[in-house]
Amino acid sequence: MTRRRRIYEGKAKVLFEGPEPGTLVQYFKDDATAFNNQKKGVITGKGVLNNRISEYLMSRLSEIGVPTHFMRRLNMREQLVREVEIIPIEVVVRNVAAGSLSRRFGIPEGTPLPRSIIEYYYKSDELGDPMVSEEHITAFGWAAPQDLDDMVALSLRVNDYLSGLFLGIGLKLVDFKLEFGRLWENEEMRIVLADEISPDNCRLWDVKTNEKLDKDRFRQDLGRVEEAYQEVARRLGILPEGGPSDVKGPKTLQ
Prior knowledge:
The chain is of the alpha+beta class and about 250 residues long.
């Protein structure tokens, strides 16, 4: 495998130098973390499945005009993406009460919300990804007001589309997290969807049984984590032939 320079390693992915200027190779790991990196483990085959699921969802979103950093999948664990300047804000869209929302406001998990709620979190492992307001974001220069408007508009489009897509395969999109980046092209800048969309950052429940088919199975020690991810891929029609086979990770240059 081609030797590439490692640019960045996160909790679930590694970014390597791409084959052309302005591109990166995004490698999906099996590592799993929860509670701001306090709980760690491995979900066998997760990287393979998330690569395929994110490819599928990013491609569908691109078809309806949502700009993304995704270019193409390279192999079972890697995809080629455009290099973007990541905005240090996580946008969380909530449709049903779950997780921290239920804990903060005492709302029983599974309660449908009156309307979709958008929350912002500052990306910082050291600080525990604190929740922030639009005032914090613009005052501290993490994003300009226009950037934030674009991020919100794109988040609502993504929510509308994915809610319908998942409902069609018997899944409820409870909530999800998005990340965005600034893409520079010929002196022009635009906001694009970045990172990934997968059961790692979406809460997906079976419509009939409310069975959790996402990373909450790892967070809450519910078991059958690998099977949950496989079930999402199976319903999307993209489970690799014979299940999630593997490839060796790329050799890196330090």
